[in-house]
């Protein structure tokens, strides 16, 4: 290799190392881009009504801030109160589930094979699995920039991106060779369309799951149903893993009242997830956004391993973007012409 090639390889290695060190900051910027893409869709909708660009942006930001303020005032206080009570009741519910499992063993087998009430191995294993994941998320939100500061920075960056998206888009495009810049512009447009479709489908699915959980749990008389419903809606953001995790708190709390109520909660959540999987998500998601379940799960494992809890939350939009770039830049621009030449 020539000296110039060695120097280029060294620069590439240094660049990759810097990107790795600021990976959480890059995730934060990506989250801001998601917010900006969503708000830009609203701006484009208002522009169809012959509203000026500046006025459309101002109306969008005003509506966005009004919605956030309303949600904070209306939802946060009751959720905080119920969540504190949920934390206190959860250990008692876990013990109730353990006693119920022991009674079930005695009725079916006539003997106790596993002492769930006194054996804390399962609970300790769950803690050992959750602690690294939570610690990475806490490091992201608190050690990196701070919890509140991270949210504020995401919103500020989103507003900046929204105010002049063309400037940031052109700045990104200019890092590519001149002959490929038009192609990059096309790829970015497809990423934007796919991300908006994903956000529309995700927000719709989260709302439906939260509302159905609220109605079902309230009819069953499960305590803290508002907190459970909100957790179910938020956790639905994480495919595969989120719905399973959101099932645990209401099931455990319901077991404090009666075993049949815990079973009813499991059945309720099963039907809610089936409704989401077979009716809501297919209706609002574009066909081009359909990802194989195995690919989605692998993406979650990959991004969680290297990026922690933020990577788990943003795994699906990251996968959407990666899939577009792989299909367009790698497959269509490199592999397909290569095959034709062969």
Automatic annotation (TrEMBL):
Location of this chain's protein in the cell: Membrane
Pfam families named in the record: AI-2E_transport
Membrane topology of this protein: Multi-pass membrane protein
GO biological process, one term: transmembrane transport
Alphabetical list of InterPro entries matching this protein: AI-2E-like (IPR002549)
Keywords linked to the UniProt accession: Membrane, Transmembrane, Transmembrane helix
UniProt KW Membrane keyword: yes
Major location category of this protein: membrane
Cellular compartments per GO CC: membrane
Superkingdom to which the source organism belongs: Bacteria
Segments passing through the bilayer: 6-39, 51-76, 140-163, 197-219, 225-248, 260-281, 301-326
Family classification: Belongs to the autoinducer-2 exporter (AI-2E) (TC 2.A.86) family.
Protein name, entry field: Permease
UniProt organism field: Gloeomargarita lithophora Alchichica-D10
Lineage summary: Bacteria, Bacillati, Cyanobacteriota, Cyanophyceae, Gloeomargaritales
